[in-house]
Amino acid sequence: MYKGRFITFEGGEGAGKSTQIKLIAETLEKLGYDVVVTREPGGSVGAEATRHVLLSGAAEEFGVRMEAFLFASARSDHVEEVIRPAVEAGKIVLCDRFADSTRIYQGVTGNIEATLLKNLERVAVNGMVPDLTIIIDVPAEIGMARATNRSAGQELDRFEKEELGTHELRRNAFLELAKEEPIRCTVVDGLGDVEDIADNVFKAVEMVLPLLPSQKKTKNKSAAQKKSNSA
Ligand code: TYD
Questions:
Q1: What does the alpha-carbon distance between residue 109 and residue 67 come to, in Å, rounded to a whole number?
Q2: Ligand 1: which of 51, 60, 65, 105 to mutate, most ligand atoms within 8 Å of CB?
Q3: Residue 31 to residue 119: CA distance in whole angstroms
Q4: CA-to-CA separations, 196 to 158, 167, 190, 192, in angstroms, rounded
Q5: In angstroms, what is the span from residue 214 Cα to ligand 1's centroid?
Q6: Domain locations in the chain as residue ranges
Q7: Which of 38, 103, 177, 214 shows a CA-CA span of 20 to 30 A to 117?
Q8: Averaged over 84-99, what is the pLDDT?
Q9: Which of 182, 205, 224 is nearest to 28 (CA)?
Q10: For the chain, what percent of residues have pLDDT higher than 90?
Q11: Are 49 and 18 spatial neighbours (Cβ–Cβ below 8 Å)?
């Protein structure tokens, strides 16, 4: 069994991650890959139970530190119950937000000490570092307008509710992160035509895709053929 890949999608509010994940999942499935789409906070039974506590704002009054621990415990469950088994089974895991969201939301705009966050991340991720992180970038103002539109009059969640300046800080922090980790992170411009954005997402994903089992067979066959020809 060949090893799968773990690809995460990050960005501010209203960046268009979900639409792009849906499109790339369809493309990869058409190519013959076994795809798992998941999200954070959540993605496993245990983590989904924590999701509401975090997004409703129920944990907000206990402080950012408490929220960071909850995100981390949800992540640990998600990694061990869903992500790692899928990657080990050769699947392509597409995850809507992961540890970088904690670095930016709880770290940069939550002011949690860097050492604490690093330790939490190390324990929660437990070696499951993404093969690729796509950061979909849109100006905070546009992203927030989209998020507000999407909510169709319903109350925004605990993080969406924050002020524009905070969302701007997050956008810049994601761009900074991409500069710090250029091998893992690729920034895709989230403005413009959905299909064009999807093409750019595919270009980045293509670079990390494993060979399909059928391609592997062809490759082995042609290698064997060459060997027997030269014998
Ligand atoms: P969600 O409704 O899943 O969607 P979206 O990614 O489209 O915003 O919202 C998740 C929210 O939780 C989002 O505001 C970012 C925040 N978040 C953190 O603050 N820290 C984290 O570690 C994660 C995974 C998410």
A1: 13
A2: 105
A3: 38
A4: 31, 25, 9, 7
A5: 37
A6: 5-230
A7: 38
A8: 98
A9: 205
A10: 87
A11: no
Q: If DSSP states are collapsed to H, E and C, what string results for the chain?
A: CCCCEEEEEECCCCCCHHHHHHHHHHHHHHHCCCEEEEECCCCCHHHHHHHHHHHCCCCHHHCHHHHHHHHHHHHHHHHHHHHHHHHHCCCEEEEECCHHHHHHHHHHCCCCCHHHHHHHHHHHHCCCCCCEEEEEECCHHHHHHHHHHHCCCCCCCCCCCCCHHHHHHHHHHHHHHHHHCCCCEEEEECCCCHHHHHHHHHHHHHCCCCCCHHHHHHHHHHHHHHHHHHC
* Pocket of ligand 1 contains residue 11 by CB under 6 Å: no
Give CA–CA dist 45/98, Å, rounded. Answer: 16
Ligand 1 centre to CA of 36 (Å) is 19
pLDDT at position 163, please?
Answer: 95
Q: For the CA atoms of the chain, what is the radius of gyration?
A: 19
pLDDT tens profile 103-138: 999 999 998 999 999 999 999 999 999 999 999 999
Which CATH code fits 5-230?
3.40.50.300
Query: What average pLDDT does range 194-219 have in this prediction?
Result: 88
* Mutation test residue for ligand 1: of 60, 97, 120, 135, the one with most atoms within 8 Å of CB: 97
